[in-house]
């Protein structure tokens, strides 16, 4: 298939046709290519506008007709430049929206994986067993504290009398 027919038929890859549409990466790559193409065209038009302005100044009052033609061409180039600016703005917006959507999709997938992992970790845990374990731990901490208190109390060895 020639490049021109690919352009007019959309030029979608075989992989994207099988899946029902382009992948986000393919779409982002094409949007970036289009942005680059339009940016180059912007630079070209800006150069042409500068040339036409220089030509108009050069002809100035000597050749008024040539100066007016140069200004008319400059005006056309400026109009094209404004159209490209609008198109670039639209493409940037679409690219950013697609990037955000792709990021959100990836985040959602990862959150799903994390939820599955948490479910797997918690499948062997029973809330009643956890409560019993926490009570046992608390009891053992209390026993340890009593032992510590008993050891650290001063013994008076006869200073205190039991009445």
From TrEMBL:
Q: Where is this region: Disordered?
A: 1-25
Against InterPro entries, the record matches this protein to:
Snf7_fam (IPR005024)
Q: Which parts form a coiled-coil structure per UniProt? A: none
How does the entry describe its membrane topology?
A: Peripheral membrane protein
Cytoplasm in keyword set: yes
Entry similarity comment: Belongs to the SNF7 family.
Q: Does the keyword Cytoplasm apply?
A: yes
CC terms in the record's Gene Ontology section:
cytoplasmic side of plasma membrane; cytosol; ESCRT III complex; late endosome membrane; multivesicular body
Q: List UniProt keywords, sorted A-Z.
A: Coiled coil, Cytoplasm, Endosome, Membrane, Protein transport, Transport
- What is this protein called in UniProt? CHM4C protein
Q: Where in the cell is it found?
A: Cytoplasm, Cytosol; Late endosome membrane
- Species: Rostratula benghalensis
Q: Name one GO biological process term.
A: vesicle budding from membrane
């Amino acid at each position: 298939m020639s490049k021109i027919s690919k352009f007019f038929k959309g030029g979608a890859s075989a992989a994207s046709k099988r899946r029902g549409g382009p992948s986000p990466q393919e779409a982002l790559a094409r949007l970036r290519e289009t942005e680059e193409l339009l940016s180059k065209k912007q630079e070209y038009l800006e150069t042409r506008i500068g040339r036409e302005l220089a030509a108009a100044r050069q002809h100035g009052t000597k050749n008024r007709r040539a100066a007016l033609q140069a200004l008319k061409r400059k005006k056309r180039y400026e109009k094209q430049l404004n159209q490209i600016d609008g198109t670039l703005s639209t493409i940037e917006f679409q690219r950013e929206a697609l990037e955000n959507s792709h990021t959100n999709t990836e985040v959602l997938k990862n959150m799903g994986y994390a939820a599955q992992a948490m479910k797997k970790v918690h499948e062997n845990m029973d809330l009643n067993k956890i409560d019993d374990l926490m009570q046992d731990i608390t009891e053992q901490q209390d026993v340890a504290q009593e032992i510590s208190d008993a050891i650290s109390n001063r013994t008076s060895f006869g200073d205190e009398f039991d009445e």
